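FAQ: What does a ligand-bound record look like?

Like this one, built around iron/sulfur cluster:
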Amino acid sequence: MKIAVSAQGQDLNDPVNQRFGRCEYFVIYDQTNDSIQALANPGGNSSGGAGIKTAQTLANNNVDIVLVGNIGPNAVETLNAANIDIYTGIQGTVKDSLELYKKGKLPKIEKPNVSSHHGLK
Amino acid sequence: MIISVASGKGGTGKTTVATSMALSVKKITPLTFLDCDVEEPNAHIFLNPVISETERVKTVIPEVDEKKCTHCGKCSELCAFNALAVLDTITLVFGELCHACGSCWYFCPENAITQKEKEIGIIEMGRVRDINFIHGKLNIGEAMSPPLIKAVKDKISPQETVIIDAPPGTSCPVISSVKDTDFCVLVTEPTAFGLNDLMLSVGMLREMNIPCGVIINRAGIGDDRVINYCKAEHIPVLMEIPLHKKIASLYARGIPVVDGMPEYIEQFQSVYHTIERVIRS
Ligand code: SF4
Ligand code: SF4
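The answer part, i.e. the structure of the complex:
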């Protein structure tokens, strides 16, 4: 299982980023071998459709689960099509959010929680 | 001669100015009025045209044949607008982001992409009080207004006298609306916000090489910063409309200023003559 967290930096101790399509990095925790890997988000530079590009990148990197703050309709549609589960409500650092997820404190969502272009405002 | 009326932000009274100018100028010359604010057209509320013709405007978006698609990812790499997501077993098309550039169907190595027509909105044409009236209405949920704006503008010829009500702001839809116009009237308020938005609009128009002039609406509510800026930048102040209870109430009822206060007709006509002189000079 690969769990990606929307983050501002590349490390477990870096703060999370609430904006899915426009976060700087994803910190990916691989449960199978207990390893950490950072993935730069190519969606961040796009003028529009950032969430789509971001979601596709996660799919290409075989991510199974993503922990997010805000996420829009196009990103959710892409993640759903790629069978990536979405959990919302991240806070604090990447580590804090992974802990919350493990304790079952983050709700799973199948629908967007913000409208399109939210990250641009 | 094509005159556009724009403003850096909404709510400055742009449509009141555009419609009042149209009603004043039509007494001098035959006139076509275009409402290019296709996301929220509202000039028809002021002018009440009788619509006699409707046209559907279409654009094309890609359609992926999953039987041929190998999910190589090429199309999504090429698309500058992120309108395509290629996953292991499916390729998703986000039609509302597509700019119809054609890269994806041109370069797909498997010929898996065809073009599908998609309606983005309608154009309505009609007449009111000797004015030819044309406006576009973007379909709900549609994000791509420039192709519809272009279709609306294709209805006019450069020989006509045309007044275009542009959408507010300085983004793509505004640029599409004021593009190829001979002069742009910027409607603003004499406030710090008004000045800020005005400067953005002036910057945009200078880049496009379109001469402009300013109409200050609600004059008296702020200070002289807008006037001083116009002086320093050699931008003509074409008219000042004072903050007036009567004007505000006309606006609220959707009545053009010149209908409720005919004394403004001459002022709008002289704005028109000033613009004529600027263009001819
Ligand atoms: S380029 Fe063609 S074959 Fe490749 S993913 Fe896109 S549609 Fe499929
Ligand atoms: S036509 Fe152009 S903008 Fe539309 S999806 Fe294809 S590559 Fe993207």
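Follow-up question: can I read anything off the structure? Yes, for example: Chain B has a mean pLDDT of 92.
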